[in-house]
Specification:
Strand order of the largest sheet: 1-7-6-3-4
Helix content: 40-55%
Strand content: 5-15%
Number of domains: 2
Distance between the termini: 46 Å
CATH class of the largest domain: Mainly Alpha
Number of strands: 7
Length: 209
């Protein structure tokens, strides 16, 4: 650790920096144990999923996160956090876009927001992030439970099963409630990809490779 290193280097003074844990409105920390780690590395968490994480925060967390994680003027933050009911969703979009911009750049932030808006409004699924599966995999059939887990939409197969049983999973906007459902060529209906959804706000494009 830093203290041991300082001793070995014979440093006369050492300084430490501590910061509070980033907690949500329920007092739970952001981390691997709470709905998946919020990775800054795009190889670990796609910018789209990073944007979605902050888009889906609790209403009570919006102002707190805007203050801690963005460079927006305080006056603007006060206006955003004062929004009520459905209007607070606009503040969440601002939060998501601003933090994604800082972490991944303005272009990725804009692409993530455009993809999310398009998916929610059923406009253009082609803007969603890709997950490629081979024709051989499709021919053999892929359990929907496995696909939900492999794409990262659900953290485990158990969570994927619970999602399906709770009518929270959709394939091409059609609800699937069979935990034994298999994705095959028929699922694609002659198209090069299918839209896989977990709940109302998490979507991915499964592409035939």
């Amino acid at each position: 650790n830093g203290i041991e290193l300082g001793k070995k280097l014979n440093l006369p003074e050492l300084f430490g920096l501590t910061t509070p844990l980033l907690l949500n409105a329920q007092g739970k920390k952001m981390g691997k144990t709470e709905s998946g780690a919020v990775w800054l590395d795009s190889n670990m968490l796609k910018p789209y999923d990073y944007w979605q994480y902050f888009r889906n925060v609790d209403d009570q967390d919006v102002g707190h996160f805007l203050r801690l994680l963005t460079d927006l003027p305080i006056d603007e933050i006060k206006k955003l956090e004062s929004l009520k009911d459905q209007e607070i969703n606009e503040a969440k979009k601002v939060l998501a876009t601003e933090v994604t911009k800082i972490c991944h750049g303005e272009k990725e932030a804009e692409l993530a927001q455009s993809a999310a808006v398009s998916a929610f409004e059923n406009e253009d699924s082609s803007l969603l992030p890709d997950y490629v599966i081979t024709k051989e995999q499709i021919a053999n059939g892929i359990p929907l439970v496995d696909l939900l887990h492999n794409t990262g939409l659900e953290p485990s197969k158990g969570a994927a099963k619970r999602l399906i049983q709770g009518n929270g999973c959709k394939v091409n906007d059609n609800t699937i409630n069979d935990v034994n459902y298999i994705i095959n060529f028929e699922s694609f209906k002659g198209q090069p990809f299918i839209k896989l959804s977990a709940g109302k706000k998490r979507h991915i494009k499964v592409v035939m490779g």
